[in-house]
């Protein structure tokens, strides 16, 4: 492939949040401490940048 060719990558949202939430609720497990950062939806760009820092981010949440 020529060096001038630009390759495009996209992010995927994976998981089964509803199923995971139901399972944790049924077992009485509090998953909220795993959310290390929370941003308003208007700050989505900052949230994305924070999520890229694996040394300080485990789960970054966007709130409406």
TrEMBL record:
Region (Disordered): 1-27
Bias (Basic residues) ranges: 1-16
Domain of life: Bacteria
Protein name: Threonine dehydrogenase-like Zn-dependent dehydrogenase
Lineage summary: Bacteria, Bacillati, Actinomycetota, Actinomycetes, Micrococcales
